[in-house]
């Protein structure tokens, strides 16, 4: 049977814009997955980087300052561009591709599940969603999981859960719009929680928010790692939730102190507010622990997850204690795509690989190798202020802007990104990168920082 593109009769050729993309006839009668995949790859046209970049600016809304690079494929921690140039990928799609690119176990899961059932919406039960929830609950502080599609959505879900929790606990009818309850949130300097109106309001950088004002009102800002500052704004009768990243990523690779997280736990308990750990970037093996908060021995009421969970497919999750779950009822929140069987089955595979003591130990060993190497190649460089981080969430703090370093490193075959005020080189590679990948990244970054420093001094 051939699937053909059908054109509605009212839709004439003249209504169409010229199309660069060829119609591809896909035979679904092919039973062998390998030959099906190969038939797709064979029909792939050669791409010209210049053309893709020109088309991108013509057709796609310009909200990203992309590097001038067209990536076509990857394997492990290596990716290749349209001109065949190879790179060590120290970005992993911003801490997403935990298993690297094209992991065989992940691919096999996807192919098998896609051949069975990809999407049902949440109208029905699926085994994959339950299997993933079981894994997350059985291996964390949580009693229930809620699935969504991204980090910002996970935080929006947590915002709603905390709001409803406060309304129910206040003893009012949560569905009576004339009554109010504690509804403020507290977040911290250098935080990043996402780009939708609630998560954006919690995010520190003003420039992300100002063009879209007003964002969600009722946010109190405190200083990260400063309990005295937090004490002033976590207030009984006002605060319903406190959002904090146990290790800040985007804000500049800042780990929390144990005293700070424990202090927040105590302040939330005294105020009757929920403590929400945003582990969208630092969770699921990135720090060398399954959950970043294990480094501190402090547990939240809600934890949000996203980036690495499905190995590159869009997913988000909010894990919560039973007292939070108890206030949510059918119809209170939902999403069409969330937790579909394709994504959840992929996430089960990712989770099983990462949740293995020897895998987590290897993340810690790689972290030590990477940080030691970076300290060695940057020793004596006056532009390097610090090399820090937990696991494979590593930052090199500079006394100059980091983007020229990333540009030079890219030309030399290593991909890295910035963080903080733009003065930090952020390294969030696939957790499976090899010693050879680390060595190349270290050598190239040492040279790139030197060259960028020399240029800045001129
Ligand atoms: C800590 C943290 N929270 C939330 C988000 C938002 O996630 P997403 O981009 O998937 O919406 C990010 C993204 O970088 C993040 O680092």
TrEMBL record:
Classification via CDD domains: OAT_like
Keywords (A to Z) from UniProt: Amino-acid biosynthesis, Aminotransferase, Pyridoxal phosphate, Transferase
Biased composition regions of type Basic and acidic residues, renumbered to the chain: 14-23
Subcellular location: Mitochondrion
UniProt key word Transferase: yes
An example Gene Ontology CC term for this record: chloroplast stroma
Molecular function GO labels: identical protein binding; N2-acetyl-L-ornithine:2-oxoglutarate 5-aminotransferase activity; pyridoxal phosphate binding
Cofactor dependency: pyridoxal 5'-phosphate
Keyword Amino-acid biosynthesis tagged: yes
Region of interest (Disordered), ranges: 1-23
Metabolic or biological pathway: Amino-acid biosynthesis; L-arginine biosynthesis; N(2)-acetyl-L-ornithine from L-glutamate: step 4/4
GO BP term (any one): L-arginine biosynthetic process
Main location: mitochondrion
PROSITE patterns reported for this sequence: AA_TRANSFER_CLASS_3
Coiled coil: none
Organism, scientific name: Chlamydomonas eustigma
One of the Pfam families matching this protein, by short name: Aminotran_3
Protein name, as recorded: acetylornithine transaminase
EC number: 2.6.1.11
SUPFAM superfamilies: PLP-dependent transferases
InterPro entries according to UniProt: AcOrn/SuccOrn_fam (IPR004636), Aminotrans_3 (IPR005814), Aminotrans_3_PPA_site (IPR049704), Class-III_PLP-dep_AT (IPR050103), PyrdxlP-dep_Trfase (IPR015424), PyrdxlP-dep_Trfase_major (IPR015421), PyrdxlP-dep_Trfase_small (IPR015422)
TM region positions: none
């Amino acid at each position: 049977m051939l699937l053909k593109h059908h054109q509605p009769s009212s839709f004439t050729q003249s209504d169409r814009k010229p199309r660069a993309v060829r119609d591809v006839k896909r035979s679904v009668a092919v039973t062998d997955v390998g030959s099906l995949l190969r038939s797709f790859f064979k029909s792939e046209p050669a791409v010209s980087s210049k053309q893709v970049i020109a088309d991108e600016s013509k057709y796609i809304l310009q909200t990203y300052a992309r590097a001038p690079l067209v990536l076509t494929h990857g394997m492990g921690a290596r990716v290749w561009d349209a001109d065949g140039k190879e790179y060590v990928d120290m970005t992993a799609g911003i801490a997403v591709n935990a298993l690297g690119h094209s992991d065989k176990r992940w691919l096999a899961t996807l192919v098998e599940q896609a051949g069975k059932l990809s999407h049902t919406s949440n109208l029905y039960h699926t085994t994959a969603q339950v299997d993933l929830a079981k894994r997350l609950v059985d291996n964390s502080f949580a009693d229930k999981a809620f699935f969504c599609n991204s980090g910002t959505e996970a935080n929006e879900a947590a915002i709603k859960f905390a709001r409803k929790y406060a309304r129910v606990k206040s003893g009012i009818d949560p569905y009576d719009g004339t009554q109010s309850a504690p509804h403020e949130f507290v977040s911290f300097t250098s935080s990043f929680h996402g780009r939708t109106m609630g998560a954006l309001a919690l995010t520190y950088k003003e420039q992300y928010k100002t063009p879209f004002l007003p964002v969600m009102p009722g946010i109190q800002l405190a200083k990260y790692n400063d309990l005295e500052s937090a004490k002033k704004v976590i207030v009984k009768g006002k605060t319903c939730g406190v959002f904090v990243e146990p290790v800040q990523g985007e804000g500049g690779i800042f780990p929390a102190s144990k005293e700070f997280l424990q202090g927040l736990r105590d302040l939330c308990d005294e105020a009757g507010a929920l403590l929400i750990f945003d582990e969208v970037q630092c969770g699921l093996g990135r720090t060398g622990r399954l959950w970043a908060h294990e480094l501190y021995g402090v547990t939240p009421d809600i934890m949000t997850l996203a980036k690495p969970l499905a190995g590159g497919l869009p997913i988000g999750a909010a894990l919560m204690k039973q007292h939070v779950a108890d206030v949510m009822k059918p119809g209170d929140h939902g999403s069409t795509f969330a937790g579909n069987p394709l994504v959840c089955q992929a996430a089960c595979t990712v989770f099983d690989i990462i949740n293995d003591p020897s895998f987590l130990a290897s993340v810690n060993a790689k972290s030590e190798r990477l940080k030691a190497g970076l300290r060695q190649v940057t020793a004596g460089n006056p532009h390097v202020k610090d090399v820090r981080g937990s696991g494979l969430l590593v930052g090199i703090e500079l006394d100059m802007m980091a983007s020229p370093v990333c540009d030079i490193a890219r030309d030399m075959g290593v991909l890295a990104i910035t963080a903080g005020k733009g003065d930090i080189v952020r390294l969030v590679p696939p957790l499976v990168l090899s010693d050879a990948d680390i060595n190349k990244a270290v050598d190239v970054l040492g040279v790139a920082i030197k060259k960028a420093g020399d240029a800045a001094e001129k």
